[in-house]
């Protein structure tokens, strides 16, 4: 297994749950947040403890009665090329708390000197002083959850910030020394119009930030919007917003490199590209997902069990926590993911990389699908790469579904 991994750190707390959010996050009292961070630090620390096997440390394969002989073995020291601290709202951490977290990460992993280190930030939770402190701790990329520059739309979404807060934090982030800033924007939200979406895109792009993620709202079960959602834009308006996004951002010099992501040249999100290209990643914190050496697993979602486990942790076991949903990916699983994740990127997938990974040509496995999609103008096949056309991107879900066995 390649020793380099991407790290995802989950901070599950927020000031207020948004009306559309189905992430593993919620408000919590100070004591719970402090105990969780201590447990998270202990989970991170477990990866630097010496183990009794020359094959490396062991991740358990079952929740309770683990048979370590079939566990997932890791090298004793992993090299990290990207770190992403997400949530929740990790920017509600104090600089002191983030400092302890970063120290634990650097003491437990070999972090590349040029590692991309990102943190998610809500505009209502960080001022210039905090952002300056975050930057001094080595965080070099900030992802700001702007969503909209329209105060009425923000209120409907249940966001805790205003458009003026968003403007302030973008300016403060730049003043704090961040030269790699992303803003998340959301279209097709209740009462949004094409004009207000255009205004949001223009106002954010005017700042000259390096990266913009532009997603359309998806109503998820279990959210307030699922049970009671204000009127959404009609289908024609939603489609206009979709096309408007690429048109406007292209005029500002942003290149679309993934279905929902735009960046200035060289400023693509390295962490997310790792997900789309099958790079190993390790998730730390409740509900955090991992993909290591062809096996997928997640940390337990129950925060009480998570905290309790690490408050009573025995490092001598060489076992890193309680994991669930552990799955060994079959060759078919891996080929599926190679295709439907790789096709999300505008450059598509490499046919030579497919053969190197799976020992078969892409035509042997997907020849019939590829031929049909080429005839329909959904994909292109040139220069060793298969990629979606503009038309294929418009109907990407149905295109990618054909690569599922």
How far from one another are the termini?
26 Å
Structural class: alpha/beta
Largest sheet: 9 strands, mixed
How many E-type strands?
17
Task: Round the mean pLDDT to the nearest integer and report it.
Answer: 92
- Major sheet: arrangement of strands: 9-10-8-7-6-5-4-1-11
Radius of gyration: 22 Å
Helix tally equals 15
Percent helix: 25-40%
Contiguous uncertain segments of 5+ residues: 50-58, 60-70
Percent of sequence in beta strands: 15-25%
Shape: globular
Could you give a quick summary of the protein structure above?
With 405 residues, the chain is α/β, with parallel strands linked by helices. The chain has helices at residues 30-45, 95-108, 128-136, 151-157, 163-175, 194-205, 224-227, 235-251, 270-276, 303-311, 331-342, 351-358, 362-375, 390-394, 396-401, and strands spanning 4-11, 57-59, 72-74, 79-87, 110-121, 141-147, 181-187, 211-216, 255-258, 261-263, 281-284, 289-292, 295-299, 323-328, 349-350, 379-382, 385-388. The strands form 4 sheets. Strands 9-10-8-7-6-5-4-1-11 form a 9-stranded mixed beta sheet, sandwiched between helices. A 3-stranded antiparallel beta sheet has the order 12-13-14, with no helix packed on it. Strands 15-17-16 form a 3-stranded antiparallel beta sheet.
